[in-house]
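[job 4471] stage=fold_predict status=RUNNING
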Amino acid sequence: MTRLKAVVTAYHQSSQAKDHLKGCCRTVSVAGSNETGIPYIELQQDVKTRWWSTWQMCDSAMRMKPALVLAAAQTGKDVPAALRELTGDDWMVIEVGWYLLKPFRDAQMILEVSVRIVRSLLLSSKCRPNGPPRVLVN
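[job 4471] inference complete, writing structure tokens
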């Protein structure tokens, strides 16, 4: 993951590298089809205060993997050195990390939605002049 963080940081710091990666997205061949090109997705940075940002970083890297592999195989100053250091083992760690963290990320998303619903119910009950809504039980 350390190497992936370095790659993501390099792309966030260099607009030329980002433009080069966008070009790789347009020219990469899609496996199993005659089409070329994949949509460009901004590589997400890992942030210590949000634990699931590690999952987001892995997810964006996995989606961009064909373009990143193509960019790593090319030469030029627009290709970050950190990208060339990513190995097959690193990609395996990224993929395993994605699978391990996904259920926790999904649970977090459900929890965030639940909190928003409860918060909106509390706010709506505070706005009612007669207090909280009454629930009738048959």
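[job 4471] summary: The chain has a mean pLDDT of 84.
[job 4471] exit 0
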